[in-house]
């Protein structure tokens, strides 16, 4: 989605806004010091859900790998819709399968069939389905699970030691459930406990596909043939699984080339000699462009490939596209032609590229052996996607790490955006003292802001269109050359400060246009999202494809004694003396305007020891500032310390200790 960044408002505009803000607060002081913009960053994208297409190689060498993939689908899909460890589940996920078999038919010009088994178009990018009575074999002891075993394939499987165990043995044959369409999905307000199993069943595509695999072309063709599969404000995830190099044919002249007609070389003719790839295949740099063009949002696509690359860390071939710059220089990734001494049933010598990696006697699939050829073209596509690309070796005995990494990259774009520290909060109006602004394209002005945004802002504030344009101008980015990137402010939605209460109230307001801020939110990647910025579903449809910024103004300075809240009087008077939206020593969720305690009312001494970063509470000073007892009358002690210390520790990233 958009990259959401925090930036400051220009000094001229900032001073004007400060005066207004100080006048609105009681008894917030006016702080006559230079104003500086706060700096923070946001992660996440906030897409409503994910549409996932998986390209599975169905050539004769992939039967065992499809079994490993079936197990991997449970790790991948569970991590999204039924995650372990209490993470929030995604409730809008769709998954479809296409094969690498496009026959010998170029997607853009016709080509002849190689033999009687392959039609010119192969599977032609159609989504796969399965017949009643189909079974899928799943590996025991691999799929992560919680104690209740909800992530396991069936109720007969159990969760032992954090992984799903089959009723008996190292494998389990599981019956495939019914499926009402050519893809598996779970939708908001619905449940589909069999999503992972349905996807695993769809992925059993057999081994009768064409040996000239067109994996990259199949990913785009499948989406182009099924435009309704992709939803406008959803993330698109593309996963390719293959042990062979890509042969996405652009020019059917490949089938009459010298190397193809040479019996010893036609098995490698897609990519050898190098001129064949240049002359007859689609350039790899087209695929990132074509996939992004389908979404009209360059951040709305993530790409992953489990393919032929070395599985050792030294090769630098596993990881994000931004992390594998040296992969193609690895000796194992070179296309070296090897002609073996044996011949096949037709008396033809077997010729192929030297392997990029080998897996013998897989621990999950006994007797299995994988020989994967260098997947250079997938690496190039992943590099084009940068942080949104990912490569993993198909020769690894367990694909769970890859599936978890891919799921994490998807989750990060589905989750709301989290700040590392609190935003300035106005308890009276129940909104953060910040603005979320959509940036327009070059050449656009504030007059081009979507009318729905302007109308919603006007309704929320009670102001005029002229006022909206003035705020939009103040929110615009000025380049060094003086030109502006126009900004369109989003209306704020008043909510309770606590996320559970805010989102309970907002459950019926997703059709509203705007954004809100709350604290102490759900777990994201195992960590609490304490400070969360969320955009409603209707708003995402308006801003899709645009960059968003969160603009906050620092409205006080601790260099000025008038703007501090660090004394006994200030920390006990029930007032927001420094204007930062926090009050005194204790959280007050009983009063008319609930607010959070102010970290500045808790004196801390920071230190490092063998257990990490420690913040030591100076109890004598806390007693001086906060009084002898808690609001409930309990004596102040190491077990009853002010809420301000909790907040101070959270902001400093340290563990509380006491003197």
Shape: globular
Instruction: From the alpha carbons, calculate the radius of gyration and give it in angstroms.
Output: 29 Å
**Amount of helix:** 10-25%
Number of domains: 3
Largest sheet at a glance?
7 strands, mixed
Poorly predicted runs of 5 or more residues: 1-44, 108-118, 362-367, 554-562
Architecture overview:
- With 659 residues, the protein is of the alpha+beta class.
- The protein contains 15 helices and 31 strands.
- Helix 2 packs antiparallel against helix 3, helix 2 runs parallel beside helix 9 (400-414) and helix 4 runs parallel beside helix 7 (285-295).
- The protein is 23% helix and 20% strand.
- The longest helix has 19 residues, at 63-81.
- The strands form eleven sheets. A seven-stranded mixed beta sheet has the order 8-3-2-9-10-16-11, with helices on both faces.
- The two termini are 47 Å apart.
- The chain folds into three domains: 33-45 and 418-552, no CATH class; 50-130 and 176-414; 582-658, no CATH class.
